[in-house]
């Protein structure tokens, strides 16, 4: 009886610990992949004013993306709208930067594009 009780307590503790650990993982099923902004702003030091504007833009587009996801509809159309939103967001973020920062930003954007191309299976577009 003691062994059964000990086993049940062990299982309950394991489930409790794994639930807490799962709650601390990044949302969206993206694992440890950096988000778009982190990749675009790699090697760019933003001023406090720029960072505040970046945060505002990210919030605005995050809300629009969530609305798009929850709206349902044709996957092809949603993919196109998501691409349009991401392009608009990227343009707004770039507009905040100095000329030197824009050069690094453009390089990072191209690196991201290359990574996306390399992840696609051959023959898919």
Keywords:
0% strand, mainly alpha, 125 residues, single chain, extended
- In total, how many beta strands? 0
- Mean of all residue-level pLDDT scores: 79
Report strand %: under 5%
Largest sheet: none
Low-confidence sequence ranges: 18-30
Shape descriptor = extended
- Name the helix and strand elements from N-terminus to C-terminus, one letter apiece: HHHHH
Q: Percent of residues in helical segments?
A: over 70%
Q: How far apart lie the N and C ends?
A: 61 Å
Question: Would you write up a description of this structure?
Answer:
There is one protein chain. With 125 residues, the chain is mainly α. The protein has a domain at 34-119. 74% of the residues lie in helices and 0% in strands. The protein has 5 helices and no strands. Helix 3 (48-71) packs antiparallel against helix 4. The chain is extended. The model is unreliable at 18-30 (pLDDT under 50).
Brief synopsis:
The chain contains five helices and no strands. By secondary structure, the protein is mainly alpha-helical.
How are the elements arranged and paired?
Layout (H helix, E strand, L loop, with lengths): L1 H22 L12 H5 L7 H24 L3 H21 L3 H21 L6
Helix pairs in contact: 3-4
């Amino acid at each position: 009886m003691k062994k059964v009780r000990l086993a049940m307590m062990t299982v309950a503790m394991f489930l409790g610990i794994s639930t807490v650990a799962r709650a601390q993982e990044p949302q969206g099923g993206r694992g440890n992949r950096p988000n778009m902004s982190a990749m675009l702003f790699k090697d760019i030091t933003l001023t406090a004013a720029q960072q505040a504007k970046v945060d505002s833009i990210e919030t605005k587009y995050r809300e629009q993306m969530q609305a798009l996801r929850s709206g349902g509809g044709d996957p092809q159309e949603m993919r196109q709208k998501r691409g349009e939103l991401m392009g608009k967001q990227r343009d707004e973020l770039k507009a905040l930067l100095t000329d030197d920062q824009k050069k690094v930003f453009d390089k990072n954007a191209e690196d991201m594009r290359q990574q996306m191309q390399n992840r696609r299976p051959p023959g898919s577009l």
